């Protein structure tokens, strides 16, 4: 019996293929961040933040971080060039962030993303941002405490998402919108402040596969996200509610905002005229109000109205900006395609979207004012 079992094990072992798709870590150049820019010759300038791994005695490993620049006609050509220079495979499966310079983003961005979607070993969960100036300048910011800019940038983007400053997007999540004529998207917009710091100032609006050149900053970015029903853990706003006060600080209120509800309704009449109504309700917690730390019911009611009116006005301004650059961020076209196909077939959405009536209302309600009563 033992002989039969032994023979069976030997025969089975011969049939096993083993790990044919193994990629050893020591043979890879781990790419943590990538920056892409357009050159004057129409080529692509690639800036890669790469972590090189090496084995030391005693089974220990050591890592060295380098920033490598290369120019080529395609990303595949650039990868081959980097592999020749550094040795080992250009491994983008650990990429945390992709930064695209604003001039390159104003062109069709799909051709530069094509390789990332075709190769299954690429990291589609990487964050993607648009940079003012060039991505090369951003990724060459000095590291701090051995943390490279790619890691700092990724952490900053996630923090902005939590604070409802930028939409939660990755390489994977924007892919469907690149090919959808009825839905556009937006990405975090980053500026380099100096040699060792940067700032996420807002969101860059896209139309189709191109960056429109328009950025919604600060409060307007948060309002846009709420209008679309998007939310992070909290939104933080500073509003001017008492302009008549002599002391400057007494004019303002600082609040934390929380999305309670959002609705978007597309109406199409018999003449195929389109109107859109967006209603948003926010709960608000006051975190700073220098004018008076004690709220009366009358004052709370007054502040609710002032804040609601200001945010509704902001919403109208944001919608005008969207229509000006033809960015259908709300996916209104997609809803018309789905529920009003005849209307969709009769119009050119590129020409129609900037002209439709989009009405927005934001209702804010103070539900907390800290420990002060």
Describe the protein's architecture and organization.
A hairpin with a 2-residue loop joins strand 7 (186-194) and strand 8. Strands 1, 2, 3, 4, 5, 6, 7, 8 and 9 form a 9-stranded mixed beta sheet that branches. The protein has a 4-stranded mixed beta sheet with strand order 10-11-12-13. The protein has 12 helices and 13 strands. It is globular and about 85 Å long. It is α/β, with parallel strands linked by helices. The protein folds into 2 domains: 23-227, no CATH class; 234-373, Nutrient germinant receptor protein C, domain 3 (GMP Synthetase, Chain A, domain 3). The N and C termini lie far apart (84 Å).
| Strand percent estimate | 25-35%
What is the total tally of β strands?
13
Low-confidence stretches: 20-25
Query: Between the first and last Cα atoms, what is the distance in angstroms?
Result: 84 Å
Alpha plus pi helix count: 12
Which outline best applies?
globular
State the helical fraction: 25-40%
How is the main sheet built? 9 strands, mixed
Overall pLDDT level: 86
